[in-house]
Design goal:
By secondary structure, this protein is of the alpha/beta class. The chain is built from 11 helices and 20 strands. Strands 4, 5, 6, 7, 14, 15, 16, 17 and 18 form a 9-stranded mixed beta sheet that branches. The protein has a 6-stranded mixed beta sheet with strand order 9-2-1-13-20-19. Strands 10-11-12 form a 3-stranded antiparallel beta sheet, with no helix packed on it.
């Protein structure tokens, strides 16, 4: 691979990397984006649910998460799974996760996630006007429940969201069923989060690539990045498979679940684990949902996209394993059969299962900032299941950090030095 020596090399061409490149270019930097040739399922941006979720103010690391995880581990079809293995990085990650599952941590993290996601919502409208339509729409989101236990959990989360200034509306069973045909008849109600919305992830990536190309940003797709070498005098060499390299004055590591591995080549520890998730997409039914829906008990999401309906779910900490576990996909298929009853078994079997890795941090907050022992390197990872939601604000924050301008949000709570 032969590219010019840019001011900044962005490693990774998912939504985080492309948004970082976009805002860096707007600051006047010469930017090159490096990504490996496409690997089916190797990214977390294209096949995700496409939900924009300011409502998700409770981090993955929260009270009760450990006990719930242990209960899920007894079922092979559960929405959460940890593949047993001897992996020191996983063990350290789980210990940090366990220590973060406190009320005090949620109280600290919730305002951070609110501020970041609401800033992203504002940036989405601006971004769509700049790069073209990617089906961004602040439709709201329905969190649906049909058990008394889940009702209590949802009302508690709604109360927290409302206390943080988010717009929340409680709907009864009739209102919920009228808004979303295909739900279980025993549905008891839902919470409507009015600040939420959705995008078409594939269209968002395509518009960003087109906009970057028009702005003179080079996207070099080919051999993967294998390491970073500090060269002194503020220079970094980005080494590629095959032996070639690109030298630059600054690097943004936005390689998703692989970011920790690359950060380790400059002696930094960025604790992210690949959290595997699945999705299936089918043509939209005539009477399908018009806004994103999360089925609380089933842990399955539904997102209406232009001409399509996407079903997604599960979180599996199984290492860098892209194999499809049909038992974990089955809960998603059950909901597909409920919402798309006209599909026969042959059509269902043709539905391609997308699988990808979400980079999960142990405290449920993103990891964004300069590496202390390699200040030329800024990492942007750890967004878990909110990578698309936080794409614009992360890109803006990366550009602010690198240019020294006032940050769009407080970078302190997400700085990598907290680990």
């Amino acid at each position: 691979m032969s590219v010019r020596d840019p001011d900044v090399v962005v490693v990774g061409a998912g939504v985080i990397g492309l948004c970082a490149a976009w805002y860096l270019r707007k600051e006047g930097a010469e930017v090159t984006v490096l990504s490996r040739s496409p690997v089916p399922g190797g990214d977390a941006s294209s096949g995700n649910a496409g939900m924009i979720v300011p409502s998700h103010v409770v981090p993955l690391a929260a009270p009760g998460a450990v006990a719930q995880g242990l209960r899920y581990l007894t079922s092979r079809s559960s929405p959460f799974h940890i593949k047993p293995r001897v992996d020191p990085e996983l063990i350290r990650w789980l210990w940090r996760f366990f220590r973060s599952c406190t009320e005090a941590h949620v109280a600290r993290a919730a305002p951070v996630l609110r501020d970041q996601s609401l800033a992203s919502v504002r940036l989405f409208s601006e971004l769509q006007s700049e790069i073209g339509d990617f089906a961004w729409n602040q439709t709201g989101l329905l969190m649906v429940y049909h058990s008394e236990k889940c009702r209590g959990e949802n009302l508690s989360m709604a109360e927290l969201a409302e206390s943080l200034g988010l717009r929340v509306c409680l709907l009864d069973a009739d209102e919920t069923l009228e808004m979303t045909p295909g739900l279980r008849p025993e549905t008891r109600g839902s919470v409507l989060y009015e600040d939420d919305g959705r995008v078409n992830p594939s269209a968002l990536l395509a518009r960003l690539r087109e906009g970057l190309s028009a702005a003179g940003v080079l996207h070099a797709e080919g051999p993967g990045v294998v390491a970073l070498d500090q060269r002194g005098s503020g220079r970094v060499a980005v080494r590629l498979e095959g032996g070639s390299s690109v030298e630059t004055g600054a690097v943004v590591l936005a390689a998703g679940a692989w970011t920790g591995r690359l950060a380790s080549t400059v002696g930094a520890r960025v604790p992210v684990q690949p959290a595997k998730g699945y999705s299936l997409t089918f043509p939209a039914p005539e009477m399908g949902p018009t806004l994103p829906v999360i089925l609380s008990e089933e842990k399955v999401t539904l997102t209406p996209l232009p001409g399509a309906l996407r079903f997604a779910g599960t979180l599996s900490l199984s290492g860098f394993d892209l194999s499809v576990d049909d038992l974990r996909v089955e809960p998603i298929r059950r909901e597909i059969r409920r919402f798309l009853p006209e599909l026969d078994s042959e059509e269902m079997s043709k539905g391609k299962v997308w699988v990808g890795f979400r980079p999960a941090s142990p405290d449920g907050l993103p990891v964004i900032g300069r590496l202390k022992n390699a200040p030329e390197v800024v990492v942007a990872t750890g967004h878990g299941m909110t990578g698309v939601t936080l794409g614009p604000v992360t890109g803006r924050l990366v550009a602010d950090i690198m240019s020294g301008t006032d940050p769009v949000v407080d970078p302190g709570p997400v700085d990598p030095s907290r680990f």
